[in-house]
Structures are given as C-alpha cells and as structure tokens.
Amino acid sequence: MITDILKGLAITLKYFFKPKATEEWPAKPHKVSPRFRGRHFLARYSGGQERCVACYLCQKVCPAKAILIESEERPDGTRFPTRYDIDMIRCIFCGFCEDACPEDAIILGNTLEFPTKSRAEMIYNKEMLLALAPEGFDGKQSPEKDSHAPHAYQKPQNNFEGKSCGPKVEKR
Ligand code: SF4
Ligand code: SF4
After folding, report:
1. What atom of ligand 2 comes closest to residue 53's alpha carbon?
2. Ligand 1: which residue has its CA nearest to atom 2?
3. Domain ranges of the chain
4. CATH number of 26-131
5. Which of 12, 77, 107, 164 has the fewest beta carbons closer than 10 A?
6. Closest by alpha carbon to 110, among 65, 67, 150, 155?
7. Which residue's C-alpha comes closest to atom 6 of ligand 2?
C-alpha cells in the first residue's frame, strides 16, 4: 500500500519538473506545422500587380465548391477577377486550389483561428483575401518576367500571421 503511494508520488515528482505538454490556449496561440493549411490569401507580384489571371482552375478543382470567380478582360487582353470569393465554411482546407494555381496566386497561409459572429462573415471576398497577404510577401518575380517560371516562394511561410481583415463582407 505504502509502496504504491510512494510509486505514485515518484511519478508525480518526475513529471513535475518536465516541460508541460499542455498548451495555454487561448492565452498563447497554437503552434502549427509548417505544412499547415490555414486561411487563404491572394498574392501579388512584387510590383503590386495581382497574380490571379482568372483562369478558373481553382474554382474548377475545389471539391467543396467554395470558390466563386467572375472576371473581365483588360484592354490588353489579359484577364483579371472582378470577384473572387471563398466560403470558408464550405472550404475543407484541402489545398487543391493552391496546387492547381498556375500563378501561385491563391495561397493557404497558416492562420488557424479566424472566428466570426456570423456565417456571412466567413465569406471572404477578393479585397479581403488580397489584404491578408503577409507583410512583405513577394512573389519573387516581376510581372514582366515569365510568370510561369518557378519562383523562390515555397511553403513554409512560417512567419505569416494574417493581418486582421474587417468584418465587412459582401453577400453572394
Ligand atoms: S482549400 Fe480545398 S476546399 Fe478550400 S477553397 Fe481550396 S480547393 Fe476548395
Ligand atoms: S487563383 Fe490561380 S487558379 Fe484561381 S483563377 Fe486565379 S490564377 Fe487561376
């Protein structure tokens, strides 16, 4: 009996000084894997030009039908999205859109927590997604260069903490 109590106390003592596995959430944010696929953002070229060329591949490949794109053509014949919505409630964060994008325009960042008070606020429009690109994010190529060449950006983008975007959303 006494031996069992002592054994138990020894185990308690052993773990008392070990690093704690418990995470102090929400006081401290969760640590996520570098491969974590969180909230999306839309990237720009270093010159500020939007990377998205409205090819619709991400919309087509999305298994959850979470992406809605509308587009127009510029006078020079290039296309751009006039609307780019992602319904974060529908999204299953599979990363297919990022994989399919030929321009590395849609990227899944590492933001895990983005609670809202309504379903409508979970629909991210183009302006919100562009604003979420991390500070200093650089597509590593100027738009003048071959936009299909591989660029230096590779996941992980560890330091990315998405800037907060306001609750203003457009309803579909
Ligand atoms: S991560 Fe997957 S489910 Fe979410 S928008 Fe992209 S393709 Fe669709
Ligand atoms: S985000 Fe990429 S895949 Fe989607 S429409 Fe734009 S260029 Fe095409």
Report:
1. 7
2. 94
3. 26-131
4. 3.30.70.3270
5. 77
6. 155
7. 52
